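Sat 14:20. Reprocessing the chain from the morning session after the first attempt stalled halfway. Input below, unchanged.
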Amino acid sequence: MRDYQKLSVAERILLVEEIWDSIATEHEAKSPQLLESQRQELERRLDEYTKGKADKQSWQDVKHRLLSSL
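Finished this time. Tokens:
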């Protein structure tokens, strides 16, 4: 039996949360930072989307277009 199996469900959930948080923190530290121009472009696209001005395509349409180009 593994040591973690001796823990209660609540304790195991807390352990998983701690592991998840450590992964997220480590990932953030290693992730490349966006260039200012990239951040601005993402903000522009989000603004268009929230205002309903963005061109929208369904996943099925995008998938079909990509697969047909192979």
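The longest helix spans residues 9-30.
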